[in-house]
Write a structure and sequence with these properties.
Strand content: 5-15%
Bound molecules: zinc ion
Number of helices: 5
CATH superfamily of the largest domain: Winged helix-like DNA-binding domain superfamily/Winged helix DNA-binding domain
Distance between the termini: 59 Å
Number of strands: 5
Largest sheet: 3 strands, mixed
Helix content: 40-55%
Strand order of the largest sheet: 4-3-5
Shape: globular
Order of helices and strands: HHHHEEEEEH
CATH topology of the largest domain: Arc Repressor Mutant, subunit A
Structural class: alpha+beta
Number of domains: 2
């Protein structure tokens, strides 16, 4: 992807949302477009290399401003701090308890009894558990363990 093209596209998106496209705002939005659901600490650590004057507080403030403008979503996942998401379309999340990764899921059609008559503006659906990658690793580790114990019995 052409960097200057994507930069001007981000400047336009921020302007269209009615926010001044400061350098920090553009860089944080760019980071969010390139990385899945990072925390403020992850954004800060990555951007500090090219923006030495950046502070963690300014990452928080900028992300809050971007969220208020509707450009990103703020996700509080499992009490383990806040994650940011540049995908503002309605979608569900799965967080792996082992690797901590957050995955986007399509939002299922939900017919929720008792919601009749309520004007729903937002819905937030999250799942927690073990992702397929970590599950495969865990099963491989279990297989190794049983393999070893069989060897022990033969001896
Ligand atoms: Zn995992
Ligand atoms: Zn997401």
């Amino acid at each position: 992807m052409n960097n200057s093209l994507s930069y001007s596209h981000l400047v336009d998106r921020i302007k269209d949302a009615g926010v001044r496209p400061s350098n920090v705002r553009v860089h944080i939005l760019k980071y969010l477009e390139e990385h899945s659901h990072p925390t403020a600490e992850q954004i800060y650590t990555a951007l500090r290399e090219t923006m030495p004057t950046l502070s963690l507080a300014s990452v928080y403030n900028t992300a809050t401003a971007l969220a208020e403008a509707g450009l990103i979503r703020v996700l509080g996942m499992n009490g383990a701090g806040v994650h940011y998401d540049c995908n503002t379309h309605q979608h569900a999340h799965f967080q792996c308890e082992l690797c901590g990764k957050i995955f986007d899921m399509d939002m299922p059609g939900i017919d929720c009894p008792g919601l009749e008559g309520f004007n729903v503006k937002k819905m937030d659906l999250r799942f927690w558990g073990v992702c397929p990658h970590c599950d495969a690793l865990a099963q491989a580790a279990t297989g190794l363990y049983f393999g070893e114990s069989e060897e022990d019995e033969k001896q």
